[in-house]
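I can't quite decide. Please look over this sequence plus structure tokens:

:::
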Amino acid sequence: MQTQSLPFKSADSYEGFAETTGLLRLDGENLNIQFQTKDAILGVVKSDIKNVAIPMDAIDDVEFKKSMWGGKITLRLNQLDLINSLSGSIGGKFTFSVARKDRELGSEVARAIRLALSEYEYDKARAAS
């Protein structure tokens, strides 16, 4: 299953001194996150663009919460190396904001991730029996 890319932003990087922007896309058996971090004060110092492919077995949960100003998606992961590779992750969770104009897309992407997780678990259980 392939979904549309979802733009996101996270201001939780480096205790609020940096801001991360990126794209999230569910593609096959991976959740691909492409992002760049820049300083929050002037926005001049930027990191290289990073790509992180998160396999379905590394995702414990995904949650989408609508708000008046947009929405938030929270990913809960179970692999420390993947958690540490995401700028702004705290306690095994990576939370990012979705703009108001992308709120419905955010909801659809979260639903697609949950569906992909269910299909992955079903296929894994079926293969084990």
Observations:
- The two ends are 25 Å apart (CA to CA).
- Helices lie at 80-85, 103-128.
- The chain has a mean pLDDT of 87.
